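User: Quick sanity check before I run a bigger batch. Here is a single chain. Can you write out its predicted 3D structure?
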Amino acid sequence: MVAAPAGAGWNPLKKDKTEEQKAEEQKAEDAEIAEAIAAFKAEDPDMKVFFDEAYGYAIFPSVAKGAVGIGGAYGSGKVYEKGREIGDTKLSQVTIGFQLGGQAYREIIFFEDKAALDDFTSGNFEFSAQASAVALTSGVAKDADYSDGVAIFTIEKGGLMYEASIGGQKFSFDRNK
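Assistant: Done. Predicted structure follows.
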């Protein structure tokens, strides 16, 4: 048996992705983002005003969450400024408390103005335990408003989660080149 040296950076069995493979992955990712945007708009027609008037938004088409006492969540998405994609983002969350189960959901964060978007894209943005997302159902967006320059909405995709916990979300951002 031959073992690879610790820290080896090259694996001769692993091939780099071809341009065609990268293009297919990008196409699938774009379709997932479009599907998530359509789901938010379909869930509540009043969401249109946020898409039309927000300075920008970050969308996570699928966030996976699981917990047994201590929980975690992770998702990746895209950030848009005035309707134009400007980069990639990742969400991570740690929670503690009474919680059990797993679920998947979509999340969107709208930025009211350039200052709120710049704060997010600084690369070290967090929501504290006090920040709350609105679980989107028809008619909810009409009464929703920005808090500290952001408005957060989620739509459950599936799963079952029992939860009474506290935690926060942390985000990273990588600007398109």
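Residues 19-43 form the longest helix (25 residues).

User: Great, the batch can go ahead then.
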